[in-house]
Amino acid sequence: MYSLKTALELAKAQGLDLVEISPTADPPVCKIVDYSKFKYDQKKKQKEIKAKAQKTVIKEIRFGPNTDDHDFNFKLNHARKFLEEGAKVKAYVHFVGRTIVFKERGEILLLKFAQSLEEEAKVEQLPKLEGKRMFLMLSPKLQSKK
Length: 146
Hints:
alpha+beta; 6 strands; Translation Initiation Factor IF3; Ubiquitin-like (UB roll); two-stranded antiparallel ribbon; 4-stranded mixed sheet
């Protein structure tokens, strides 16, 4: 442990900087280092952490309230593929004009969609109407390694 004045003199003698590492500690922890190199190393660590972080991808699938079985199955297969890739799926029914009176049809469609993907995905958010759209969020189930 050194006084501030002594620590600054030591740093100056070595041609380096006195950098405060942990200001909340009692007493505060400081280090004698090259400040620009210290900043560079910190940026590098942050970049590395950011690169390792997993990015979540959200794929959207749009339905109408009167979507037919063939279209439903076609979109269902796409959703399966998205979930296998590890992406989240946001399925929604878009009500255009007077089709808003068929809210229950949209809800039934989304629940049927969720039920069809029961084995591949878990429901993150049940159907919810926001404006002219009714949303359903699905996320992939974690596959256990066999």
